[in-house]
Predict the structure.
Amino acid sequence: MFNQTYKTLFIVLTVFLGFTATSCIDDLNTSPIDDDVVTSESIYNTPEEYRQVLAKLYAGFATTGQQGPAGDADIQGIDEGFSSYVRQYFTHQVNPTDLAIIGWGDEGLPDFNTMSWTASNDFVMGMYSRIYYTIAMANEFIRNAEGREEAAIQEYLAEARFIRALSYWHALDLFGGNVPFVTEDNEVGAEPPQRTNAQDLFNFIESELLEIESEIIAQGQNEYGRADRAAVWMLLSKLYMNAEVYIGEDRYDDVITYTNNIIDDGAYQLHDNYQELFMADNHTADGIIFPITFDGVNTTGYGGTTFIAHAAVGGNMNAAELGLNGGWGGYRTLPQFVDQFDLSGYTTPNPGGNDEIYVPGGYQSASGYSNDWSPADAPPLVSENNDGIYTGYVYFAEGAEFKFTEDRTWTTNYGGQDGNLVQNGNNLSVADGGVYYMEVNLNDLTYSVENQGVNPLDARAMFFTDGQNKEVADPGTFADGYTITKWKNINSDGSPPQDLEFVDIDFPMFRLADAYLMYAEATARGAAGGDVNKAVTLVNDLRFRAYGDNTADVTAQEITPEFILDERARELYWEGHRRTDLIRFGLFTSGDYVWAWKGGIQEGQAVSGHFNIYPLPSSDVNANPNLVQNPGY
């Protein structure tokens, strides 16, 4: 693993941050009086010194300052824990979507629940500042590394250019192309940065990535935590996937090219256990192409995955079971996302052709099973041993009544109560909707029905429901909304992490499953070179991992862009993709799809289209005469 325990460096950089209306005045050529202060003159000498600074570039995605967990922040004007790159990215990419609701009342944060932020929002300034802080550090590294002939330094240079391209992509995606633009060619502190535009910024990111493609370390060959060629291909794929949004140009053919590079190369394989991708030792899991690494001892802070894991714990949850010392009682999810995992119309498979009985009832049409009270259309229970004991799963709408029949007619039917059955007995019922596991024993005429919660068949459905309401009547009430248990600070063998407060879980910014789904979506959108049979195989590989068998396989006819959007939600939730995905489908601000508290009401409503991008912080616009505020703000 790339060691992020780096020497404390104070690199005097000039950057126009959202919280500083004036630029740094320190001269890079001035030797410091304080022996603890290090300038570029004294640190950019040997390859090892370049490596130390490169570690700081990578660590900037994970840490918030120079000492950890707090006390010497990179960025001023915001709580240091809030200033984390990953924490800010989560706030901007996940919070304003159907995946999350936040209960904390910090000024400006509830605006992400209702999509009502303004140019003076502190969290918008925090994201913008973190992006440009990273760009400034990368520019300084590149400025010093150019012209050096050492092979190691040239490798580091390619990685620094990747880091800068990644941050500029975040600037393009979050703030649009109307943003400040500086590179290593700009004289430090000479004048306020000029603004660019979407087309030019897109072209710059693309050209940078294409130039370093052959210069960066080959896919799968770099140290864990550092970018390699596959990371470059992933970022190109993400750029092209959303090109219609950014520049009005269809680049789905290029998505096929670069996702194929990743998929066909084989350097990264699909890990066989979904949960292990989000555990304390996920650095040992395959399929993570570019992680932001966290360590409970060496990269401590109140952002990153420490924030994601702790913020979702509260109510009746046992924090220790998630490898944590407590919960922060903040984030839950919304019912519209929970419904992505419903099993409407689910039928228990019976590949062996074993004996079956059936479960007709008044719930059938509301639950996806066709006609009510029709044994001919009812879901089966299966006797795996043909021994008179039948089991299976049935999806019930709320308040469902049902019975059991021995065949597809009413000739022999069973009802009853309290776990006992009689022929032609009373209707059975369940109060709550959901997926139920059923067992019927026709030998002794007994039955059991147990609510399994949210889709127990899909390993990705990680919800805590005990004491939680599915509906969110009040965003400030932690009991409103199911919670997410996806991030687990415990090792995959069950052993404890290094620390219960600061987690070891790495954040998978890019992983192989995303490449699979981008390939499938681009194919469904008609990209040249896309193979629908390959797309089916890739999607079914993900669903096989989720379900443990071929139960949930899909066909070529089901591989539509809309299906892939839903599958992306199920596979990639709380990983920082959802806002971008919804914008690509025209659903983020429109009324075509609404979720609870979108637009400030529980039922959800459309909001103005200008919220598809965030505003430039008003303080930076006021400080830099070259900037023009984004429309609508």
